[in-house]
Amino acid sequence: MNLTRFVSFGGIAISCLTILAMVSVQNVKADQVTLNASGATFPGPLYQRWFAEYNKLHSDVRVNYQAVGSGAGIKSFTDGLTDFGASDAAMSDTEMAAVKTGGVLLLPMTAGSIVISYNLPGVTAAIQLPRDVYPAIFTGEIKRWNDPKIAAANPGVNLPDLAITVASRADGSGTTYNFSGHLSAISADFKAKIGQGKQVKFPGVAGKGNDGVAALITQTPGTIGYVEYGYAQATKLPMAVLQNQAGKFVAPTPESGSAALGQVPLPENLRAFITDPTGEPSYPIVTYTWWLVHTDYSAKPGVADAIKGLATWALTEGQKLSPDLGYLPLPDNVAVKVQAALTQIK
Amino acid sequence: MTSPSPTLSPNGAARIDLTKKLRWRSIFSNSLDATVGILTCAAIVPLLSVIYMVLSHGAVHFRLSMLWQLPPAAGMEGGGFGNALLGTLILVGIGALVSVPLGVLTAIFLTEYSRGSKSARVIRFSAKILSGLPSILAGVFIFGVLVVTTKHFSVMAGGLALSILMLPIVILSTEEALLRVPHFLREASLALGANQTQTVLNVTLPTAAPAILTGVMLAIARAAGETAPIIFTALTTPYWIQSLNEPTASMSVLIYNFATVPYKNLIDMAWSASFILILIVLVTNVISHFVVNRSKS
Amino acid sequence: MDPTAADVPESHTKTSWVANDRSKHSRRFDLFFAKATFLAGWGTVVLLAWIAFQIGYAAWPAFQKFQFGFIVGQNWDPNSDIYGALPLIYGTAVSSALALLIATPLGVAIAIFLTEDYLPPAVQDFFKFTVELLAAIPSVIYGLWGIFVIIPITTPIGNWLNDHMGWCPLFSTPSYGPGFFPASFVLAIMVLPTIAALSRTALRTTPIATKEGALALGATRWEVIWQISLPMASTGIVGAAVLALGRAMGETMALAMLVGNNNQISASLFAPANTIASLLANSFGEASGLQVAALMYLSFILMALTLAINAIAEVVLERTGANRQRG
User: How many CB atoms sit inside 10 A of residue B230's CB?
Assistant: First the structure.
């Protein structure tokens, strides 16, 4: 094969690719706005659904969203690489101060609950875990399933003499942040030994993502771990019934989750951390998740209006899609408050 | 003069009992035949298992319309991965466009112009170290150097990140291929009056072409399946590609996104996308080998 | 009768590139091409230096805080900002070594099987394409295959070995699922195509004349392979192993799903562990502040590890004289 033929073969291949690329480039409408966003993994599927549905109604607004993790989302937003970000953990004061241009506003857009899932062969009823028991399981203090403390809360259930293996998230995650935050709030022992963070040292094994933890739980009998409610619901994982602050045992359902959300008044800056909700019907582990937007988009025409329109739709129509996909709709008063905050975006 | 001995022949050479040794040598040879056959079968089983898993999950749900439709969101029916397919072709195309010429030229420098010298060792060493770079770091590097400075996630950044991953593979395999071209071919060409460049371009490279192609195909296959570098550089989009300065969808990122969520329609699509991805690489492999081997004969 | 111009075949009268080489044009191109290769070669070094610099620069805060104690520290706790790399270095080294230990004999066996005349050429080509194809499977799919196919197989094996031979350090822990063994096995399958394809190329280019000479002298097929083909292909096979090792040490996604993500040092094959690349993949998206610097310090150590292993390999090759061809 001589050089000319090789080069011409390569040249034809490249020209084909280029033509293909150019042909696929659509005529960009004059008023079309494309928003780039990145951030949290947990609400990603819901957001993608919102953006797709909104685009059907308003074809001039397109959003590119990629789940890279809350931390990376905050970073890209702060550096001006994305138009808005998404995070499971609201930005701290230092992080907010680091946003140099455009200011920052946090908007809670949806919420979810975190469930404790387990693998107990032969046990069909949902396990009940009292407030002082489940943090001790996750510190490794309670080591076997037939421990008297667990048995006392589950009369009539035949608990096997099986070792408890804790499965946690290996990747830094907002889910871990919120779960460890809740455990730290209700157990001083957990707070001292493990503490709250996006990546903390649980005993046992760790998996990547909700799917990794779910795989660990289903593979080995005796494993217990934490996953998002939507994930557990879609994959039919058993969910533990937890005792809330009022002393009641509450199963994770959309209703108990919403009840918990409704307990916490939203402060002015819309950063609410619900580490231990009050109220009898409340499920104890719920979290908001936020959009990070600038207050000043004057450098990019059309973006402010696009974001306001998108957010308004998401806070009203979009909330109706949440339950099917496993997310908690925002309580009405919260949605109204967030919509009012949208006027700050220019 | 040595006296006659049963172990030495008249001229002093060792006398071997060929019949006894031959039996052992045959047994040795045959048992190794069996061993290599068994090892190959043992290796083929997991390989076939992976292919089977992709086929059984992916081919089953595949619809032809997936090739030109846009990805669905969670809970929406239908859709496809057309934009991701195009995105991967363009990203890998850019990666190859940058890494193959650079890599081949580097390998030529190593074997033709500086063979055995200290600089060759340094360059080869650098290529080996680069080959151990985790793919995520290639993405992080381009992110820091290109994306942050231009404030864009873009196709170009994604392609460049892939080229960093492909470069060492191309360099090292091309160098091996060039080393195996027999010396007499080069010498004959030079004796006929060609200069070094003409020898390399018209004799050495064409002779090594099939082996170089194997290396290039391995690099392309690797790049097509990489996720982490693309997430940090080309982001993703649910729409068709707009320009080289904007984000793009890609098969590997789509598979990564869809395989890790609990929605069945997305998981099925991830498997179908994996099926098509390896089909595309196979087709590219077969076509390139066909072209290269045809023009040689 | 003397041959005239009409008798000479056309191909011999076409002015070939050979005759024109004295032109200034081709001499200038010759120089240009030589310069281009020089630039490309050193460009690779510059690229590596640039990457190393970027990583080192980002790692600096962590280096200032931990100095070299980072390398022997055993505690990785992002929450308290305490970082120690030893379990990760151990995990990376062991998983890559195991993977290579499994993949190299298998890959070379496949290569031999495909270059000797065990099979008709068409079938050989089919296997060759199949093996090369496997290099294209995304790492995420290998991770899923590991979780759904391999771990259910290795877990009972690990538990059986632990029950019956727990005294041996290699089997001293029960198997929870992910761990060194399933991760290394899947990693071996991932790098197998590289070793098989490149070893096959190396074996194919053994000069036939040498092989036939040996056969004519009465050698059996395997004596030819052991004493002629393999030694002559050794640089190619070692090169393939080097590329495979690089891939193994840098593999992120699949290992993140299979290695267990537990920062501990254990001699047991079935204990969960962690590697540098998979920790990077898991943590980078959410990391900030000192954690990012610590991750970059870790990456720098990985690059240094690759350098060290390659240096050792070079020395070993020098000693065994296998680098003869490179001069």
Answer: 33
Count the neighbouring beta carbons within 10 Å of the beta carbon of residue C264: 15
Q: Two tokens at B236?
A: 């993703």
A84, containing H or E segment: strand A84-87
Measure CA of the first residue to CA of the last residue in chain C; give whole Å: 53
User: How many B/C residue pairs have CB atoms within 8 Å?
Assistant: 301
How near does any CA of chain C get to the CA of B2, in Å? 28
The number of C-beta contacts closer than 8 angstroms across A and C is 88
Closest Cα in chain A to C153:
A219
- For the stretch C87-97, pLDDT in tens is 999 999 999 99
- Residues of B with Cβ-Cβ distance to C45 under 8 angstroms: 122-123, 126
Contacts of B109 (CB under 8 A, 6+ apart): B120, B123, C37, C38, C40, C41
pTM, entire model: 0.83
Q: Which of A278, A275, A276, A342 is nearest to A312 (CA)?
A: A342
Host H or E run for residue A165:
strand A165-169
| Segment C10-48, tens digit of pLDDT | 555 444 555 555 678 888 888 899 999 999 999 999 999
- In tens, the pLDDT along A52-67 reads 999 999 989 999 998 8
Q: How far is CA C101 from CA A46, C106, C236, in A?
A: 45, 9, 17
Strand A249-250 to strand A241-243: parallel, antiparallel, or no bridges (unpaired)? Answer: antiparallel
Phi, psi of B267 (to 5 degrees): -65, -45
Substitution target in B27, B44, B102, B128 with the highest count of C β-carbons within 10 Å is B128
Percent of chain C at pLDDT above 90?
20
**Is the pLDDT score of B1 beyond 50?**
no
Q: Which B positions 179-218 lie with beta carbon below 8 A of chain C?
A: 179-180, 182, 192-198, 200-202, 211, 214-215, 217-218
Comparing CB atoms, the residue among B200, B202, B274 nearest residue C17 is B202
Q: For residue C40, which of A247, B113, B43 has the smallest C-alpha distance?
A: B113
**Roughly how many angstroms between the first and final C-alpha of chain A, as a whole number?**
62
Q: Please name the residues in contact with B207: beta carbons below 8 A apart, sequence gap of 6 or more.
A: B181, B185
Give SS3 for A292: strand
**CB-CB: which of A196, A200, A208 is closest to C282?**
A208
User: Is B205 near chain A, with CB under 8 Å?
Assistant: yes
Buried/exposed code over A57-87 (b: 16+ C-beta within 10 A; e: otherwise): eeeebbbbbbbbbbbbbbbbbbeebbbbbbb
Walk me through the domains of chain B, giving residue ranges and CATH numbers.
83-249 (1.10.3720.10)
Reduced to 3 states (helix: H, G, I; strand: E, B; else coil), residue C61 is helix
Cα gap A6→C34, rounded to integer Å: 20
Q: Cβ-count burial of A191 within 10 angstroms (0-12 exposed, 13-18 middle, 19+ buried)?
A: middle
Strand partners, A108: A290
pLDDT in 10s for each residue of chain C, 327 residues: 455 545 555 555 444 555 555 678 888 888 899 999 999 999 999 999 999 999 999 899 988 888 888 888 888 888 788 888 899 999 999 999 999 999 999 999 889 888 877 778 888 887 887 787 777 788 888 888 998 899 889 888 888 888 888 788 888 887 777 889 999 999 999 999 889 988 988 888 888 888 888 888 887 778 888 888 888 888 888 888 888 888 888 888 888 888 888 888 888 888 888 999 889 888 887 777 788 899 999 999 998 888 888 888 878 777 765 545 443
Q: What was the ipTM of the complex prediction? A: 0.84
Q: Is residue A232 within 8 angstroms of chain C, CB to CB?
A: no
| Nearest of C124, C145, C99 to residue C197 by alpha carbon | C124
Residue B136's pLDDT is what? 87
Contact call for C19 and B171, based on CB within 8 A: no
